[in-house]
Design a protein that fits this description.
Shape: elongated
Low-confidence stretches: 1-12
Radius of gyration: 20 Å
Structural class: alpha/beta
Strand content: 35-45%
Helix content: 10-25%
Number of strands: 7
Distance between the termini: 74 Å
Number of helices: 2
């Protein structure tokens, strides 16, 4: 007779929910879900900085929300998110560094995450390398995530700023003169 506790992850059993997903209580299932959430967080900043900014809307659930903790910025729904992010200046150069990503599974298909970020950003960029700048933002994202149609997506992202300043607009004199 097998007396091994079915919830004991050391027994080597493959635990799956009714949709065939690995149970988040199973160590492998937990790692897969946490990694998918971490990748989503990194994909967000990668798309915003190096891709088409409006495409970050696809990383949210259809009813997703972007919100600033201080102030009255709250954007709801994919179309509104697409318009908001696509509306950033075409000549903006930005780079975000994310660290200390902490994902906590709350169920087999939901999670929360906290991520520190630093944003370097200028407007008026016409190409080339610039001299170093100070960051314009340092803060954290607080996310809720949900598996939707087999993919982890942001349900909400709230932005908290600890340090912030204006985005510098480069003048023609700031343009790189060569390498």
């Amino acid at each position: 007779m097998d007396t091994t506790d079915a919830s004991d992850p050391r027994d080597g059993r493959d635990r799956r929910d009714t949709l065939g997903r690995l149970d988040p209580l199973d160590p492998v299932g937990r790692l897969i879900a946490e990694r998918a959430c971490e990748r989503l967080i990194v994909e967000f900043v990668h798309t915003l900085d190096l891709g088409e900014p409006g495409d970050v809307a696809e990383l949210f659930t259809p009813d997703g929300v972007w919100e600033w903790a201080a102030g009255d910025r709250r954007i709801e729904g994919r179309e509104a998110l697409r318009a908001y992010f696509a509306g950033r200046p075409a000549d903006r150069l930005s780079r975000r560094l994310c660290t200390n990503i902490l994902v906590t599974l709350t169920s087999v298909s939901t999670a929360t995450a906290s991520t520190y970020f630093t944003t370097y950003r200028v407007d008026g960029h016409t190409g080339g390398m610039l001299p170093p700048r100070l960051p314009v933002q340092v803060g954290r994202y607080e996310d809720t995530l949900r598996e939707h149609d087999g993919r982890w997506l942001l349900t909400s992202r709230e932005l908290f700023l600890d340090f912030a300043g204006p985005t510098e607009r480069l003048s023609p004199a700031d343009a790189p003169t060569g390498s």
